[in-house]
Amino acid sequence: MSVEVKDGKKEDNILVATLSMIKQAVDLAGLSLEVYEHLRTPMRFVEVAVPVEMEDGSTRVFTGYRCQHNNVFGPYKGGLRYHPDVTTDSIKALSMWMTLKCSLVGVPFGGGKGAIVCDSQNMTHKERERMTRGYVRALGSILGPETDIPAPDVFTDSQVMAWIADEYSSIMREPSFGVVTGKPLAVGGCVGRNEATGRGCYFVAKEAAQAFKIPFEKARIAIQGFGNVGSNAALLFAEKGCPVIAVSDISGGVYNKEGLDILKLIDHVERTGYVKGFPGAGAISNEELLAVECDILIPAALENQITGKNANDVRAKIVVEAANGPTTPEADQILKENDILVVPDILANSGGVTVSYFEWVQNNYGFRWDLATVNRRLEEKMVEAFNMVYSFYCEKCIGSDMRTGAYMYSIQRLAEAMHYRGWLRNGTHRQ
Ligand code: GLU
Fold this sequence. Notes:
Rossmann fold; seven-stranded mixed sheet; five-stranded mixed sheet; 14 helices
């Protein structure tokens, strides 16, 4: 799956890998090739120029994307990412994962993803605001609460969502906050949305430990990435008593075999910006974190972290993919050979979009749920999705892996909806 990219660097192309996974799942499930045809190409891919007046008075023009992959289940749904390394292929793959994720967890959305190619960490608040509003002005006509609903993703947050809601509402000349999810509570956000991806991942890890007969309260956890998802998951594990023995971010990692004090670590990160230098823990590198002996390894950073090169070093019993696409196909193969269960991203990180759905429902009704209701409904959805996929995998995917099972399960549901909508000429399955 490695392809040459334009600067000559080798890169694992996640679009190539995703298409081949989708094709394999369609074949294994005996689904009509028309299903693959529908999933192979996004329904719409838009590229826009976003001119931004910078603080020094100059104008910079950023490139923005929105990929609307498939809407057989409902409005396109998926995050908006600000990152300098975004490519058109990665956005397409990420939008495909959203389609698969929404289908898997049973929320009535299709898949989408957007991005602006930028180094937003080094931009000012005002520059980020102008850039976000410019993106909405360029793309507003294809967004909407019944059309396409962005949400937070890498380096975007509830403030960015509030700017989108505001700009979109002024274009529509009426408050229309349901156009995005992951908003601040003051403008129609949902309690628990910010923590939802980490919390969903925690529920799934708990179910996976049970399936593997690992006593959960004693499960040693290692987490790569200490942003929103990694830190919220870490907190929940620690609250339950699970020793979180290693955590890393771009500065490197920290390790303590007795378990790190996560509240103190969060405080340290708030003060210094990084996990590095946390007292009471040894320093490790990001590579060493992936190789730590533990029960559950949680990659919660970016794509392509566990690769053909380092997969043999992984000494966890279970990998729970909190990030999107952290494991390459070569690594998947190695982990399977080493009897390590990989709970795939489209299941493990679907807690975010699940609570986005709850937010959208509340916006539509003009009604608010309390935190206990949100968390209970999230737990129900995650536990149900895990058990459905896990038993499907155990029954139907002998010799294969849970990712293949999750893809098959999800695509079968998409095929059924395509069939009823009249998108397939000869039924859901091959004749
Ligand atoms: N960006 C998140 C994801 O990749 C959330 C998407 C959403 O809530 O729409 O799942």
